[in-house]
Fold:
Amino acid sequence: MSGIPWVLHVDLDQFLAAVEVLRRPELAGKPVIVGGRGDPTERAVVSTASYEARAFGVRSGMPLRIAARKVPDAVILPVDREAYLEASDAVMAAVRAQPGAVVQVLGWDEAFVGVESEAPEAYARALQAAVLERTRLHCSVGIGDTLVRAKVATGFGKPAGVYRLTAANWLEVMGARPTKDLWGVGAKVSGRLAKLGIITVAQLAAADPEDLVPEFGPRMGPWYAQLGRGDGSSVVDSTPWVARGHSRETTFQRDLTEPAQVDEAVRELMARVLQDVAKEGRPVVGLTLKVRYAPFTTKTHARKIPETSDRDEILARALELAAEIEPARPIRLLGLRAEMAMPEDAREGHTPTRSGW
DNA sequence: TCTGGGGTCCTAGGACCC
DNA sequence: TCTGGGGTCCTAGGACCC
Structure:
């Protein structure tokens, strides 16, 4: 392969809903919502809605109950992780099979692809065709000269399209848009930027990085300024991902009020977390217990622990944390996270998600 | 019957050490 | 009796992404 280095960002269209439609073709063209256990009377949220459902205002993260109210005749399906993982593996295999492709998987339904090409649009179209042929799934592709520009470009390509965003057209396309449209700027940060008089991407791009330090700190301040310009890394890293930790959490359909219920829930969560940890084969070095009290205040209890793989030892530490829970307050959610020791060769030189941007 | 579940990384502030 | 200044580690809390 020869040519100019490009970053492509591949993103499956309405992934979960599309996988469901594939195995139930009669759902094609209908408003399909995937979330929770598929029961809109339960506490759960929308994972993915088909375009037909989105037309009614349904969005990811919306309570399932609200979504069902917006689209009374929607088909609501439970999340089936195994099925999506299988589909994802097939998609990524098709992507990796593209000539000269360096692939960095970001999630079930998206990946960066580094490639040298004289004709990136043609390459992107060929990639889409290969994914479609192999999986019957449609994807959109963003083309960029940095990771950030490629990622943002994908949004303009949806559905099933290709879009290119480089230093040459970044400000023209993104300049007038609100900062929240950037990857990594959410409601909170865009609000804090607005307090500094920065509303648009163009204004953020023009900001002096040092001026953002007092508000956002020495790393994030300059980082946001760079984000506004679309600048940053263009290195796609195919190094296999090394998980920092594993966590499990559950939202209780009815709030817990008895200490014995909490104790039982912690044991159950810990068992599930330790299954994942055991697969990694690395010892645990820290624990975090997250407690959401009804209705919505969250408290976390974190503890560094002496490195160990002993299940009883880890469980005992988790129960110590659980003892810090305030009694007499109804509990809606419990989460347990185990942080694992990093393998020696991954401690340095590995590109983590954020600094890799 | 408003608010999932799995991740990552950053920052502030206190404790502690020299 | 008064109390610097730099550095590191740890905990708690936030923010964001898919």
